[in-house]
Design goal:
mainly alpha; IQCH-like ATP-grasp domain-containing protein; single chain; two-stranded antiparallel sheet; 4 helices; globular; IQCH; ATP-grasp_IQCH; 2 strands
Length: 99
């Protein structure tokens, strides 16, 4: 799809993933994206086989019970946020809530 072409051409695109074919394959990258981009309040999903606005959905991060805690933790220690072990723990918490 278009995302791969833009990426190959090094065109700036919003954060996201592509080539996701089922719900279980979506949750792990979504948890990673939310952790990496706490400033994105809404994630949009688009199914490639739909047209006319069908196949679009959105998800607001504020609806997650753990999201305020993530923001507080980030604000308390922003320099630690990129730590791989911390990210793995936080993404696991997000995954459980998303599932």
């Amino acid at each position: 799809g278009g995302k791969r072409i833009f990426h190959a051409a090094m065109v700036n695109t919003p954060p996201g993933v592509h080539d996701v074919y089922d719900e279980s394959a979506l949750l792990t990258p979504l948890a990673r994206l939310i952790c990496q981009h706490l400033d994105v309040p809404r994630w949009v999903f688009k199914l490639d086989d739909e047209t006319g606005g069908r196949g679009c959905a959105h998800f607001d991060t504020a609806s997650l019970a753990c999201f305020e805690g993530l923001l507080r933790q980030h604000d308390a220690a922003p320099d630690d946020w990129e730590d791989e072990q911390l990210q793995a723990r936080l993404q696991a918490v997000l995954y459980e809530e998303l599932a």
